[in-house]
Amino acid sequence: MKAIWNGQLLAESVETIVIEGNHYFPPKDVNLDFFNNSDYHTTCHIKGKAFYYTITVNGQMNIDAAWFYPSPKEPAKEIKNHIAFWKGVEVSL
Q1: Could you name the CATH architecture of 2-92?
Q2: Terminus of the chain with fewer CB atoms < 10 Å: N or C?
Q3: What span, in angstroms and rounded, lies between the C-alpha atoms of 60 and 50?
């Protein structure tokens, strides 16, 4: 799987984990040079507290476009620190 936004490859992996239709990429397969921590958080009753990244490519920002769970609840423990995308980030083969 690949994650691309604004013409930039953000992540590429053959080891994504799919939960609720979202591909979670292992951190080792994500180019974190384009990511900045966000103050935004959400809580999922199944996975726990999500932390977000803002992605910046070629001077354009995609605010809170990626998220991860640093301490997921037991049912989602396999996605610890894996990164998922939305807000126009194309995830495909």
Answers
A1: Beta Complex (2.170)
A2: C
A3: 23
Q: What is the DSSP letter of 70?
A: S
Give residues with Cβ within 8 angstroms of 48, minimum separation 6.
69, 71, 72, 73, 76
How far is Cα 93 from Cα 77, in angstroms, rounded to an integer?
25
What's at 53, amino acid-wise?
Answer: Y
pTM confidence score: 0.95
Q: List the domain boundaries for the chain.
A: 2-92
Handedness of CA 52, 34, 17, 86 (dihedral sign): positive
C-alpha dihedral, 29 to 33 to 38 to 43, nearest 10°: 0
CA neighbor of 87 nearest in space, from 54, 47, 59: 54
* Two structure tokens written together for 23: 């591909």
